[in-house]
């Protein structure tokens, strides 16, 4: 990895985050008046003026923008209009819950999706292949919030095996993690199958077959490493999207994570919290994309030599 490679990547990351910061600021300032939204229609002009003075909303839009960018660069996203607490503290309290739920969902997706995709490619055209494809289409087409509601009706209300909300025990993880993980597993199974089928037709795999290498050895040591780059790409996108992807599921299961905080902030028009969460999601996406780009060099020596 050359210095030019790092400069280009870091430059793109910085530009992306700057554009998100600017777009979020303009979009939220244009959407509504925070003072009127927080104080309600019965607020007096004096109360509105005091609110604007307290939160610096009485300054010009450009001045607000400069203060916003300056504070954001130091990690200061201001105070929550609703709770009166630092936004960073509110988000920091919720991140561990979201990471725990997202991590378990991601693990479920990999443990189910990758093996199913490999088996479908190895036994292409068989009943197993068709079964995996049906699983992939059904779980991908089924919205995870709808799956979550079905799980609550069956396992919480009918069978009373699992709690429908909360996050205190491992039992609370099962339904939200399954609702998120199964849809990701369906996507991963389909991509794994396509990548493996593409690699299996290559000459080096046929050469290994001609030398008498067993099917499973060809799969694990010849085909799978060469199919890793497209798989790492889709897995990286899924990982980066976990924070945003948990929004609906956390709301369905009353999970106290970042996604539910975002829904609460949007419904209460808490502009400072919404701004910070949008930036957090953007930063997580560009960071994961950078890690995926770096992994290409580790997986493929040709990419490493070009960079």
TrEMBL record:
Q: Which GO terms describe its cellular component?
A: plasma membrane
Compartment list: Cell membrane
Domain ABC transmembrane type-1: start-end pairs: 95-292
The way it spans or sits in the membrane comes to:
Multi-pass membrane protein
Q: Which InterPro entries match?
A: BPD_transp_1_N, MetI-like, MetI-like_sf
Question: Which keywords appear in this protein's UniProt record, sorted alphabetically?
Answer: Cell membrane, Membrane, Plasmid, Transmembrane, Transmembrane helix, Transport
Coiled coil located at which positions?
none
Gene Ontology MF term list: dipeptide transmembrane transporter activity
Task: Keyword check for Chloroplast, yes or no.
Answer: no
- Which residue windows are transmembrane per the record? 104-124, 131-157, 169-189, 227-253, 273-299
Q: Where mainly found? A: membrane
Can you tell me which family this protein belongs to?
Answer: Belongs to the binding-protein-dependent transport system permease family.
Q: Which PANTHER family match?
A: DIPEPTIDE TRANSPORT SYSTEM PERMEASE PROTEIN DPPB-RELATED
Q: What is this protein called?
A: ABC transporter permease protein
């Amino acid at each position: 990895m050359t210095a030019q490679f790092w400069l280009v990547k870091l430059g793109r990351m910085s530009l992306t985050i700057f554009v998100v910061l600017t777009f979020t600021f303009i979009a939220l300032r244009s959407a509504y008046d925070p003072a009127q939204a927080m104080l309600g229609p019965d607020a007096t002009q004096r109360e509105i003026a005091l609110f604007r003075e307290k939160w610096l909303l009485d300054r010009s839009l450009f001045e607000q923008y400069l203060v916003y960018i300056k504070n954001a660069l130091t990690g200061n996203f201001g105070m929550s209009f609703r709770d009166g607490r630092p936004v960073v503290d509110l988000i920091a309290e919720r991140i561990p819950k979201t990471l725990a739920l997202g991590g378990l969902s991601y693990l479920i997706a990999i443990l189910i999706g990758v093996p199913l995709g490999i088996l479908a490619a190895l036994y292409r055209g068989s009943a197993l292949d068709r079964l995996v494809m049906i699983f992939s289409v059904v779980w991908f087409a089924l919205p995870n919030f709808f799956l979550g509601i079905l799980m609550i009706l069956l396992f919480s209300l009918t069978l009373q095996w699992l709690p429908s909300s909360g996050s205190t025990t491992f039992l609370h993880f099962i339904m939200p993690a399954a609702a998120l993980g199964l849809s990701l597993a369906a996507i991963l199974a389909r991509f794994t199958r396509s990548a493996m089928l593409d690699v299996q037709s290559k000459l080096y795999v046929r050469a290994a077959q001609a030398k008498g290498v067993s099917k499973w050895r060809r799969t694990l040591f010849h085909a799978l490493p060469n199919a890793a780059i497209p798989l790492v790409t889709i897995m990286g996108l899924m990982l980066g999207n976990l924070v945003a992807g948990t929004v609906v599921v956390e709301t369905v299961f009353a999970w106290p994570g970042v996604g539910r905080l975002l829904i609460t902030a949007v419904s209460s028009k808490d502009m400072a919290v919404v701004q910070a969460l949008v930036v957090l999601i953007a930063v997580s996406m560009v960071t994961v994309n950078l890690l995926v780009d770096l992994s290409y060099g580790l997986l493929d020596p040709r990419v490493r030599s070009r960079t």
